[in-house]
Amino acid sequence: MPSLQIFFSFLLFFLFLFLLFPQRARGASSDCSISSCPAGGPPVRFPFRLRRIQRRPCGYPKFDLSCSNQTNLTTLTLSGSGAFLVKLIDYRSQKMWIDDPNNCLPKRFLSHPFSLHDTPFSVPGDSKNYTFLNCSSSQTTPTFPAKSISCLSSLEYTVYAVPTGAYYASAPAAAPSSSPELCSVISTALVPRGVTYERSNGRVSGAGVAVTWSQPDCSACEAGNKACGLDTDTRQIVCSDRKKSPGLPRAVKYSIILGVGIPGLLLLIGIIHYIYGKIFDRLHRSSTDDLSTSTALQSANVVVGLDAPTIESYPKTLLGESRRLPRANDNTCSICLGEYQPKEALRTIPECNHYFHANCIDEWLKLNATCPVCRKSPEGSSLVTPSSSVSSSSSSSLASLQ
Questions:
Q1: Which residues lie in Low complexity bias regions (predicted)?
Q2: pTM score, whole prediction
Q3: Residue 75 and residue 81: Cα distance in Å, rounded?
Q4: Any bridge partners for residue 85, and if so which?
Q5: Which of 44, 53, 138, 144 allows an S-S link to 170, with CB 3.0 to 4.6 Å?
């Protein structure tokens, strides 16, 4: 019975998982509703998809986003350039703004080139070379057009980004870094033209770089407020009525399901165990009662015989040489079917006056309380159990031997 309980427990557990994660269990009926990372971020829908949250058919190839393991914010990983924080997605204009997770894009540009190779994205306009200068805080602001980079600056110095052409056109041709009025050059880097800036505390810091995509083209769907998607059979872009986004985030829904579902499942398993235990006890009790009843019936059906004193009280006759019988023409014992011979002892049952060999009828009456001929039961006789009969028989045998 315990193995049956364990089987049903596992069956209910897998049924619970099937209901909890319908997308994974049902396969084809995938839910491609709008989603986002737990810590927030732009809403994610086609052509993008969030790995581990939305199924692969919900997005377009190479448009995968993910939730950062450290911050749980929306992240785009570019081959050759690393991971970038996704700040905004404009689905209608098909433009996305990405930023450095540490809010310092210029540092990323100085460490390695910004590349969109092997990605579906591009930067509007051409990239431009910028020269980064390290200027002491005691020096005056450079006269050429420059933008301070707060994430690279400190109290002792300020880092400026200057278009390379404008810098070298304004600075002296010979050893510009040796002049006390000028700043030292850190490096020159290619900066995408799509970089935008925001001003904070009087300084200008990088806010992100804008990238665009042309394929898949969902502009017609977005203009008609339709949901854009990919037909998996024809591989064509299709528009459909936009489904209302769920009221609660996916993570909150799963938390509610886990918080309510697991205790409910444990309670259900406990109730089932209790019911099975009751059924098992009832079946066990029923089988025990049936066995007891069967034993009682068998005991009731056991035939008992007479005790030894009652048998010895029946009349006993010793035949003489003349073999004169108590009943004429009745010279055969009904038990052994042998003829009566002289000197043999016969015993008579008083109630019916039938007689037999004394040895034959004695053994018969020890096991049966009725006459073997007419089946009458002697009146006023004492019945004994088979074991008592055997004991009495054994005692009689021992007495005869003595």
A1: 381-402
A2: 0.50
A3: 13
A4: 75, 99
A5: 144
CB 310 within 8 A of CB 368: no
Superfamily (CATH H level) for 305-401 = Zinc/RING finger domain, C3HC4 (zinc finger) (3.30.40.10)
In the chain, ranges of CATH 3.30.40.10 domains:
305-401
Pairwise CA distance, residues 258 & 81, whole Å: 39
Separation in Å, CA 228 to CA 180, 212, 342, 355:
59, 17, 123, 113
Q: What is the pLDDT of residues 220-231, one digit of tens each?
A: 898 888 889 888
| CA distance from start to end of the chain | 61
In this structure, of 4-18, 104-118, 162-176, the range with the lowest mean pLDDT score is 4-18
Query: What is the tens place of the pLDDT at every residue in 331-386?
Result: 889 889 888 888 888 888 888 888 889 899 899 988 888 898 888 876 655 555 44
Residue 214: which residues within 8 A CB-CB, separation 6 or more? 94, 120, 122
Distance CA 90, CA 289 (A): 78
pLDDT for the residue numbered 114: 84
**Under DSSP, is residue 97 helix (H, G, I), strand (E, B) or coil?**
strand
